[in-house]
């Protein structure tokens, strides 16, 4: 028997890329994964196009592999993901050592593409096939895995925010069939998974069909997953405010397995900017939505995404964003300096001066960090369920997460990965909590 070839995958961007990388590695049968590019037979970069820096990283990373390729011309180099979709064959023109370019909706064709590049040809596929790539991928392997997993249920976006490339790189909204998702979820649970995060670029726009023709919304899908024995925690991300339906909000109050954490990007607190961003919600409608969500689940931790320095953002617009952050009291936040993306409507508009945008970003991040710590501190003295994910840095220590997604370190903990136990929170440091097992 010949020994398996080695595959090195590097993943950039969002959680959906993390999931896709797992599936691509599984699709490339005959390869086993390696952590070092030096001994790989194939290097695959799963890329992100969301901001200019993210896209440029790909070319600098490729440059680093040049000596490897020069030394071993048989080494195959592939670019997958959103830069592949956005730039296609241009990548091979700019970096001729690239053998393969595959867009996010075409990676079920990877095995054929791999066969082609082995003959010395180049392979390029950035189609948006109407058939669902997941249906063409082989069944997932049965190997044991860790206690948490991602499961993509929805892809693509129809929202066309004025700054964003995702509708162009991932295509229109598509939902996977209900039965496929349930089968995959059961399978993950059999392999040791206790927590599943349902993924979609617009996950709460999920609208899937069962084999019997029945329909399911995200809330209905969650209730079906709720019935799987051994699955203890359900999360979903990322949601758009306009797709937060009453039944989904209600599920946060009534479904015990649905964790009290919601990532709900707002981007800006200024109505003028929201309108120019084509967000189709206002500051007020967002605030009212948060109020309804907290009525259903008062302790829910809300996280958000924010963009500073969007074209023509004034000091007042920025102040409005800081203000909505205070008003919502976000417990977690991801903030970005606006990056003009070719082909998006906002890229045509006058930019805010870089130094001004930098200062706004710092101010916003300081505010979020402050709120995040204050909310984390409210956990002190409480007893919370923790799902243990992996050993900590120190002997006998385990790291797990609370329902609010705070990391907790527990000393003298002899529980295995995947165990859920009651923990009393005794310390709150910068980005995590420390606790002790209750009744021990
Ligand atoms: N589908 C998700 C995630 C989109 S990308 C959603 O709708 O929320 C993640 C975040 O990147 C966005 O929420 C936005 O805050 C940020 N982002 C997207 N395009 C950007 C751009 N051109 N410049 C800066 N940040 C951007
Ligand atoms: Fe991009 Fe807006 Fe779609 Fe999110 S909702 S992926 S920010 S276009
Ligand atoms: Fe990036 Fe594509 Fe995800 S652009 S954020 S990898 S959908």
Summarize this entry quickly.
By secondary structure, the protein is α/β, with parallel strands linked by helices.
What can you tell me about this protein's structure?
- It is a single chain.
- This protein has 13 helices and 21 strands.
- With 440 residues, the protein is α/β, with parallel strands linked by helices.
- The protein folds into 3 domains: 5-125, Rossmann fold, CATH 3.40.50; 135-371, tm_1862 like domain (pyruvate-formate lyase- activating enzyme), CATH 3.80.30; 383-437, Nucleic acid-binding proteins (OB fold (Dihydrolipoamide Acetyltransferase, E2P), Beta Barrel), CATH 2.40.50.
- The strands form 6 sheets. A 6-stranded parallel β-sheet has the order 2-1-3-4-5-6, sandwiched between helices. Strands 17-18-19-21-20 form a 5-stranded mixed beta barrel.
- A hairpin with a 4-residue loop joins strand 20 (420-428) and strand 21.
- The longest helix has 24 residues, at 354-377.
- It binds S-adenosyl-L-homocysteine, iron/sulfur cluster and FE3-S4 cluster.
- Residues 50-51, 157, 163-164, 166, 201-202, 238, 240, 265, 267, 305, 307, 336, 338-339, 341 line the site of S-adenosyl-L-homocysteine.
């Amino acid at each position: 028997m010949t020994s398996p070839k080695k595959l090195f995958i590097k993943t950039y961007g969002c959680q959906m890329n993390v999931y896709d990388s797992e599936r691509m590695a599984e699709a490339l049968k005959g390869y086993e994964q390696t952590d070092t590019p030096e001994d790989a037979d194939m290097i695959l970069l799963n890329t992100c196009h969301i901001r200019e820096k993210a896209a440029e990283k790909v070319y600098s990373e490729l440059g680093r592999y040049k000596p490897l390729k020069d030394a071993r011309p048989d080494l195959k180099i592939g670019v997958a993901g959103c830069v592949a979709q956005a730039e296609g064959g241009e990548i091979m023109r700019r970096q001729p050592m690239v053998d393969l370019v595959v867009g996010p909706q075409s990676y079920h064709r990877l095995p054929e593409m791999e066969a082609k590049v082995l003959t010395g040809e180049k392979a390029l596929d950035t189609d948006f096939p109407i058939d669902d790539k997941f249906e063409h991928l082989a069944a997932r392997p049965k190997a044991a895995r860790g206690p948490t997993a991602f499961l993509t249920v929805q892809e693509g976006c129809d929202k066309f925010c004025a700054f964003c490339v995702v509708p162009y790189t991932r295509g229109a909204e598509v939902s996977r069939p209900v039965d496929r998702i349930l089968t995959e979820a059961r399978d993950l649970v059999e392999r040791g998974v206790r927590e599943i995060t349902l993924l979609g670029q617009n996950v709460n726009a999920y609208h899937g069909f069962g084999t019997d023709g029945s329909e399911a919304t995200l809330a209905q899908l969650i209730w079906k997953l709720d019935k799987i024995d051994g699955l203890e925690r359900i999360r979903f991300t990322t949601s758009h405010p306009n797709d937060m339906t009453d039944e989904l909000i209600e599920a946060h109050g009534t479904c015990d397995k649905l964790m009290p954490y919601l990532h709900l990007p707002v981007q800006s607190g200024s109505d003028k900017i929201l309108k120019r961003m084509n967000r189709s919600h206002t500051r007020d409608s967002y605030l009212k939505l948060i109020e309804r969500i907290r009525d259903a689940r008062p302790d829910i931790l809300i996280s958000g995404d924010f963009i500073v320095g969007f074209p023509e953002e004034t000091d007042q617009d920025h102040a409005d964003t800081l203000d909505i952050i205070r008003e919502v009291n976000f417990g977690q936040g991801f903030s970005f300096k606006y990056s003009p993306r070719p082909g998006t409507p906002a890229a045509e508009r006058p930019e805010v001066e870089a130094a001004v945008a930098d200062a706004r970003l710092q101010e916003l991040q300081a505010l979020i960090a402050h709120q995040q710590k204050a909310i984390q501190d409210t956990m002190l003295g409480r007893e919370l369920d923790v799902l243990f994910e992996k050993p900590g840095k120190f002997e006998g220590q385990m790291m797990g997460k609370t329902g609010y997604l705070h990391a907790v370190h527990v000393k003298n903990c002899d529980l295995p990965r995947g165990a859920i136990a009651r923990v009393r929170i005794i310390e709150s440091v910068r980005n995590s909590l420390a606790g002790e097992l209750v009744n021990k």
